[in-house]
TrEMBL record:
Protein name: NHR domain-containing protein
Pfam families: Neuralized
Coiled-coil segments: none
Record domain NHR: where: 1-64
Length: 64
C-alpha cells in the first residue's frame, strides 16, 4: 500500500495499492506505507516513456 503523503500529481486507487501520475507534469513523488522487507517485496510496473527516479529513505513520510 502507498502512504497518504504523495506528490500533487499522484493519484491513488481506493485501496492505495496502485499509484499513477500524468507524465507531462512533475509532482510524482510517492511513498510506500510500510518499511520494505525481504519477506514482502515491492514490485514496480512502469508504463510509458521518459525518465523515472527511484529513491529509498529511512525518514517517515509523515515528516514531509
Amino acid at each position: 500500500m502507498f502512504h497518504d503523503v504523495k506528490g500533487e500529481n499522484v493519484k491513488l486507487n481506493s485501496s492505495r495499492t496502485t499509484a499513477s501520475w500524468t507524465p507531462v507534469k512533475s509532482g510524482g513523488l510517492t511513498f510506500v506505507s510500510t518499511p520494505l522487507t525481504y519477506e514482502r517485496p515491492l514490485t514496480l510496473t512502469l508504463d510509458g516513456s521518459g525518465a523515472v527516479e527511484l529513491g529509498i529513505t529511512c525518514t517517515d513520510p509523515a515528516c514531509y
